[in-house]
Amino acid sequence: xxxxxxxxxxxxxxxxxxxxxxxxxAGGVMPCGKATAESMxxxxxxxGVDKAVILNIATNPHQQKSVNDFAISFVSDGRIIPFxxxxxxxxxxxxxxxxxxxxxxxxxxxxxxxxxFFVDEDRMFPIYEKIAELGLIxxxxxxxxxxxxxxxxxxxxxxxxxxxxxxxAPVIAAHLGGYLMYEQTLEYLSGSGIYIDTSFSxxxxxxxxxxxxxxxxxxxxxxxxxxxxxxxxxxxxxxxxSLELSDxxxxxxxxxxxQKLLKI
Length: 264
Ligand SMILES: [Zn+2]
Known about the structure:
Mean pLDDT: 96
Radius of gyration: 17 Å
Low-confidence stretches: none
Bound molecules: zinc ion
CATH class: Alpha Beta
CATH topology: TIM Barrel
């Protein structure tokens, strides 16, 4: 069993337009599939992924409802587990979180670079507190985003300062706690209670860094992810398998931790 905790898909007509643009700003990364449900499912079948969390992002306040309607359309899908998103500039952000919860959505993705907020800004606190109250899972893009590298809106240090706002609601820092910010992850996120995902590590993260981070965050708090379509399951699974982790740790990372968090 493998659960991929970090993937992206779009409605078909948006994927057609968005994919070439996003691939270009990411430095010409070759997408795996077409970033649609239809193209992702065969890749999952071929490359051994049973279920995938899709991380939708509202990149402006006007998009928020349609992005979440798209997420909600997958709520009863057996293999795709949809996460929603709220935009910090939306007047409806708090009621939208309630709508997501009521619709059966289990978590939200926040991308501080795409959504233009610093993760430790005061204006975000009502959103974090509402998430805590509803018990939703939050995935933050963390560290450098290749497409929008400057400034980094979510660093491990900034994240460590706001974690308490989420109470017992689980928080996940994508990309091993902070893409290209591994020293900060070790310094600020060890023992913090945060979860991390392993997405987009193949070919970019030295395995020694990953090993150190997994052991310092703890194997109970690491979730396998690919970042499809920006990386492929086969590459990311090979990467995880190369880290010389115990069989028990691999099971936790590939699906047991995700099952617990998602209650599936
Ligand atoms: Zn991603």
